[in-house]
Amino acid sequence: MSSSLTIRPARPEDAAQMARVNVRSWRETYRGLMPDAVLDDPGFLAARERFWTAALTDERYRENRVAVAERDGGLIGIAMSGPPLDAAATWARQLYVLYVSAADHGTGAGRALLEAVVDPGESAALWVADPNPRAQAFYRKHGFVPDGTVQIDDGVREIRMVRDTPHGR
Hints:
Keywords: Acyltransferase, Transferase. The protein has helices at residues 15-30, 36-39, 44-57, 109-117, 133-141; strands at residues 5-9, 65-71, 74-82, 93-100, 124-129, 145-153, 156-163.
């Protein structure tokens, strides 16, 4: 792709486009892993837009870092990290969201978004769908390893991956 990629902090006015990237990515990634009723729910887009509006404006999310990837004036990726919700967490950040449109996989957008919301030297953890070999390989490349913890969320099996030590470039 010749057009340039821009990574920047998300703004409240991005919420609608962020919701579209979020829903499209879920449909591309989780079809067959998650019930179609969830992915095709007519209220899904509006619910995601409300979530992103809150994430970008509500005081409760003030410690979160939210970034977007933009190409040709449109958003193609979104990412969000924040303090871990798990009281027993031994890591500094939790990666809550990292989605890049399938058409932009392999363009560097994912790496740039990850680094925008989780410093390369920061310990961090994330949940990733299992099976999702592409995403798991991406996170392994960036120093994350499965810690053996599994959960089921929205009917999807997820594994936790953790990066305890600073990760060099």
